Amino acid sequence: MKLYKYILLVCVFFMAFSCTDEDLFRNEVHFRLENGGFVRFAGPFNALIGADDPSSWSYNELVEDVNNNLTSYDVYVIGGGDTTLVVSHANPTGQFGIGLTSTNVAAALGVDPSTFEFGQSIRFWATATRNDGVVFNATPLSADFTTGEVTGNTQEQLTTTAGYRNALTFSLIIACPSPPDVSSYVGTMNVITSSWFELGPVTVEAGPGANQITLKNLQGGSNRRIRGSSADFVLTLNKDQTVSFDRQEGWNDSGFNSQYGEYRFIQGAGSNFTFQCANNRITIRMYANVNAGNFGTSTMVLEK
Asked: H helices then E strands: how many in the chain?
């Protein structure tokens, strides 16, 4: 009896409810049984909303009804514990623009578009309604073989494997329309926020590597001075408008180092960004670190 119940649940699990991409199953009979509703981005997923002004943007990347069997594709925004409809596409065919704007997203969130900021991440959830009325979303298909309960109707790999370009759950970041140009950062920038480094001007040079800048003598002021080239701080400006850095020495006091080990800064959790179109703003989060581990976080913000 248990074996029969197990086989029955497997059949339900993989035949009656499952949403797949045609690329996943080459067996045509198997595929027709599993021909669920699935929408994906037509090209590689672009997580950046390019805008000169964070309060006025449009994100209209092409998406497509993979199985050509939908009556609607609805996109919701997640905010404040609520999931609210932003845009609905009735009877979609072929490729079509997803249709997200600062205006319709702000309206769904119940805020003014002027509240959007560079670096802000916005989460979206979508549903795909098949022509028989079954609604598919990104809830993964799973079954409890003890209780017989089946939840979700989309195979997990469709939403967790980048190659499937899933458009059922995704996040976007408001960013500049083009990647950072290192040469535009060279000269003088100002540290406007920091709990460790001195506020005020700092000289910026290109290098030492490609897409890198050096904040000269950033740690060499009267506050927490360290000696030598280690006073410089090197940042890498990535094409996706994120900023990264290798471990950097934070303080070379011999008494402290002999007791606790080298004091250094390591890249912190959260997103580190640069936005050239917004006064070359750089925001980085870092941990203070010694041999025993991390013991504090700091956010530094610089602008031209």
From this structure: 5, 23
